[in-house]
Each structure stands twice: as structure tokens, then as C-alpha cells.
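User: My advisor, Dr. K., asked me to get a structural model of this assembly before our group meeting. I'm new to this, so sorry if the format is off. These are the inputs:
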Amino acid sequence: GENVEQHPSTLSVQEGDSAVIKCTYSDSASNYFPWYKQELGKGPQLIIDIRSNVGEKKDQRIAVTLNKTAKHFSLHITETQPEDSAVYFCAANRAGAGSYQLTFGKGTKLSVIP
Amino acid sequence: NAGVTQTPKFQVLKTGQSMTLQCAQDMNHNSMYWYRQDPGMGLRLIYYSASEGTTDKGEVPNGYNVSRLNKREFSLRLESAAPSQTSVYFCASSVGPGSGFASEKLFFGSGTQLSVL
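Assistant: The format is fine. Below is the predicted structure of the whole assembly, which you can bring to the meeting.
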């Protein structure tokens, strides 16, 4: 089955700096890579996703890049703000395989220091 | 729209007690899921229901049972709670198969924090 590794497990940045979270996956058939953000006391929420037919996707201060050859993908947050403090999860799946086959990384706790 | 609603939010059990976690969604989604979240372990799938009338085991089903009561509701039951089941439990839903890429997005509830003493 799929295995997703996520690094780092914790990350502290100064407000205004950039943050990068990296994930690797093992199944070369995976082609759907979502990122979820979990704020304290809440459930995870999808913030961005990418499919393997593109190498990069941006949404305001958030971007995700994908390297299919190396089987890794990354989340980039620019101009970090205190409200970006949360736990972030990457995940991988084969599009159309069903969300029950989604494999999550173990999460990264991001702290943005004002 | 409330989205995905879980009850209770907190629960303390003694070893051997039973309880049912309730979940309901108002988005007319076909698929529903139960996950547990433990420190350093990420999110692990316990059971899922791809559509009304079906349920299947996920990665960590031992010690749990589920019921898809109707399209809206999906409950998780612990028959004889054990300390190893101390965790935060999340219910989630998605549009479901056959809906293209829209089916992939998971919508999560706010979680149930369960402690088994």
C-alpha cells in the first residue's frame, strides 16, 4: 500500500517568513495530493490539492509543488501570519480510487511567532 | 448548513464500558468515514461507508463496530472500551464515487475526545 512520510514534525517561523513542509510517497500510481489544515480543537480542512498532471498550484499565499520523478510534494506558505499556526497534513491517493484509500502523513505542527 | 456534526465532544469511560459516537452530515454526501487521531500517528481510518447500506473496514478496525443508519448518519460503537482506544475520533464525509474529482474532498467534524481509564 501507499506510504506517506512528512517532514518536519514541528516547524517554528517568524511572522512574515516562509514555511515549507515536505512529503514523500511510495506508490508511483498515486496522482492526487491534498493538504489539510487542522486548527486547535477543530477537524482538518482541505486547503489545497494538486493532481499529477500539473507541477505547481497556487492559491494566494499557499502553493504546492509536485515532483513525480522523485515522488515528493511540498507545501509552501509565504508571508506567514499567526492564523497560519496549525497542524498540516499531506496525503496521497489515486484519483477516483475512493477517499477511503487516502493515506495521510503524520502531520506538521506549524507555529508562527508574532 | 452545519456540515458534519459529531456528538459527544468529550467522553470519559472506564475500561470495559461501551458507548456509541454519533455522526450526522447535512450535505447529502454518499460516503462517510471514521478516523482516529493519535499523537505522532496522523489520521488512521477505522471504518468507512462508501454509500448507504455498505460498510467496510479501514486500517484499524479492531475493537469497533459501525452502523450506517441512513444516508445522513454513521455511528461508531465501542463494545468494550480499552485504554488503547483513548484518542480523538473524527467523522468525515465526501460526495462519494462517481462524482469525479469533487468526490475526493473530505469534510471533517470537530471531533470527539475520548479517554478510557
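One thing worth pointing out at the meeting: The interface with chain A takes residues 4, 31, 33, 40-45, 48, 50, 56, 58, 90, 92, 94, 97, 101, 103-106, 108-111 of chain B (CB under 8 Å).

User: Perfect, thanks a lot.
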